[in-house]
Design goal:
The protein has 307 residues and is of the alpha/beta class. It is built from twelve helices and eleven strands. The relative contact order is 0.13.
Length: 307
């Protein structure tokens, strides 16, 4: 059995998924689509770059991360069903997305959260040293957000499904309570949040192009990471926080109810009810570290190949 995964090359999580899968499955992975038995569409938005003759002649597994039905227009519907005709199995990374997908297809759906690479994400004991190296005060109360938050190319309009407006409302309230609040940002397209933080006079530090090593350090110095999304497939930050023992609270999206304690999940209008449970999340994360986190994927592909 040979598996080919389509490439994204967007310097995003899916590129890392492809790289880690290839590295840890050298016996079944192939970089040549002609040699494959299964084509894994890891990014459905670029699936059309895969020759249809191969899609028609091989088994196809397609990963779907979330479906925004509020913006699911005729073109998106057509694109979905164009792909659906070739798909033998759908993969989703949360049970919430599975419920969405059931409204669109009768194909079999397997829900498996992505693995988390414990070589990249882990607890660092000397957190004060990291702060000192980064020039961040040991007195600051650090709140993190490591994701994109603007729509399209204008770099101004908030991507509302990611909830950057909710994040701003929460840190505004925290800024009243926490005398030394400082927001830690990473990633591209952070213009909306940065502008809002400036408008409200909230202190922040921004590491735009932080690599994985720096990101792990940043997770480790946080007092709190907040997921404020209205709609998500993952986000992978939930597992990265869990395995690095970073305090995290989240809206009830994506894998949050599968990884976090119920007390760490909040409603959009009441974040103060949520309390991080580091030990619970860390214990849950151990089911998803490599290689254990890949075993269910292997079983899924084996089942598709044999049927």
């Amino acid at each position: 059995m040979k598996i080919y995964s389509n490439q994204v090359r967007e310097s995003w999580i899916i590129d890392r998924v492809n790289e880690e899968w290839a590295e840890n499955n050298i016996d079944t992975y192939t970089s040549k689509i002609k040699s494959s038995d299964i084509i894994w569409i890891t990014a459905n938005w670029v699936w059309k770059k895969t020759p249809r003759k191969h899609l028609a002649s091989k088994k196809v597994v397609a990963s779907i991360y979330h479906i925004d039905f509020d913006n699911f227009d005729d073109k998106q519907e057509k694109d979905f069903y164009d792909l659906d005709q070739y798909v033998d199995r759908y993969h989703v990374i949360s049970l919430k997305t599975k419920q969405q997908l059931l409204k669109l297809t009768d194909k079999k759906i397997t829900s498996i959260p992505f693995w988390v690479n414990q070589r990249n994400w882990y607890e660092i004991k000397h957190k004060s040293t990291i702060r000192e190296t980064l020039g961040i005060s040991s007195e600051d109360y650090l709140v993190g957000s490591f994701q994109r938050d603007t729509e399209g190319k204008d770099l101004k309009s908030p991507k509302l499904i990611k909830g950057p407006d909710i994040f701003i409302e929460i840190v505004r309230k925290l800024n009243i309570e926490k005398e030394n609040l400082c927001v830690v940002l990473t990633g591209t397209r952070r213009q909306y949040v940065i502008e809002q933080l400036k408008n409200f006079g909230i202190k922040y530090v921004y590491f735009e192009m932080a690599d994985i090593s720096k990101l792990n350090e940043l997770y480790n110095i946080l007092d709190l990471y907040i997921v404020t999304s209205r709609l998500e497939g993952g986000p992978q930050a939930i597992l990265e926080c869990a395995v690095s023992k970073t305090p995290i609270i989240s809206t009830n999206v994506g894998v949050a109810p599968e990884i976090l304690h119920k007390d760490s999940i909040f409603e959009l209008d009441d974040f103060k009810t949520a309390v991080p449970n580091i030990d619970f999340a860390y214990k849950k994360s151990q089911d998803y570290i490599i290689p254990k986190g890949m075993e269910k994927f292997k079983a899924m592909f084996r089942e598709v190949y044999e049927n």
